[in-house]
């Protein structure tokens, strides 16, 4: 996928995507299968880092970068909660990711109750 | 707060915490007041980075680091969704944060519909 084709947000009914973890880290994935949803952090390596304000819809409305989830930000770290479809060794298949092929992976975390401060027991955020 | 006192997860009824943004980035906060909840990414600067598996409850149950939200991880980036209480210039007051005083801040994002792949319209995740 090239940047122009990249969706603004991932969708659960979107295509399956694969996260390739360096096999050195495979032991760190033990138990990940128990998570229905995982949080993926990744480095948006093609993003500009110099915009304090921006107009994401290319209209005249300009907002501060930290009030947007735009990929263009001082520390361009993407954060998505995706559906874990399966694990095959050091490869995770997920749905709902919205990043480019080749995007460097930074971290993977299970989504849990208590991750968010509000409504921890509701289905929107708990697993 | 020192590490031994640090809560395992933030709580909405916990103390107010302040995020100090470098004033250079203050324009990037414009519009953040519209968010009820924000996602905070921070660098867990005191965390070990060499554990592929760990036993967070100090019992005999060992799990892979990526199946846990432990702060000890190869790229020790913390991610919390917190309640935004108010903004005063380049200082944000929040509830629900669980990190140490002096923890370097990496990024701030609003919490929105579409951030998670499941149940985007439910109150647990939307703002």
How would you explain this protein's 3D organization?
The structure is a homodimer of 127-residue chains. Chain A is an all-beta fold and 127 residues long. Helix content of chain A is 0%, strand content 31%. Chain A contains no helices and seven strands. In chain A, the strands form two sheets. Chain A has a five-stranded antiparallel beta sheet, with no helix packed on it. A two-stranded antiparallel ribbon of chain A has the order 3-4. The model of chain A is unreliable at 118-127 (pLDDT under 50). At the A-B interface, β2, β4, β5 and β7 of A face β2, β4, β5 and β7 of B.
Please provide the ordered H/E string of secondary-structure elements of chain A: EEEEEEE
**Pair with the biggest interface:** A-B, 56 and 56 residues
Radius of gyration of chain A: 16 Å
Anisotropy-based shape of chain A = elongated
Number of helices of chain A: 0
Number of strands of chain A: 7
Which structural class matches the secondary elements of chain A? Answer: mainly beta
Mean pLDDT of chain A: 85
The amount of helix of chain A comes to: under 10%
In short, what is this structure?
By secondary structure, the first copy, chain A, is mainly beta. Chain A has no helices and seven strands.
């Amino acid at each position: 996928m090239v940047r122009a084709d990249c969706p603004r947000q991932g969708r659960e009914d979107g295509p399956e995507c694969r996260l390739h973890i360096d096999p050195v880290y495979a032991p760190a994935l033990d138990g990940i299968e128990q998570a229905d949803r995982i949080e993926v952090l990744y480095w948006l390596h093609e993003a500009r880092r110099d915009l304090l304000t921006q107009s994401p819809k290319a209209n005249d409305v300009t907002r501060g970068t930290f009030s947007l989830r735009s990929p263009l930000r001082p520390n361009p770290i993407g954060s998505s909660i995706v559906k874990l479809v399966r694990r095959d060794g050091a490869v995770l298949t997920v749905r709902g990711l919205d990043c480019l092929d080749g995007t460097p992976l930074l971290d993977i975390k299970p989504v849990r109750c208590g991750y968010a401060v509000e409504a921890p027991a509701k289905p929107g955020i708990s697993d």
